[in-house]
Amino acid sequence: MAAIMNGMALSGLIPYGATFFIFSDYLRPSLRLAALMKVHSIFVFTHDSIFLGEDGPTHQPVEQLAALRAIPELSLIRPADANETVVAWRVAIEHREGPVALCLTRQALPVIDRSKFGAEEGLAKGAYVLADAQGKKPQLILIASGSEVALALEAYQKLSAEGIGVRLVSMPSWDLFEKQSQSYRDEVLPPEVTARLAIEAATPFGWERYVGTKGDVIGLKRFGASAPYKALAEHFGFTAANIVQRARKLPGIGG
Question: In this predicted structure, what is the pLDDT of residue 24?
Answer without folding.
Answer: 96
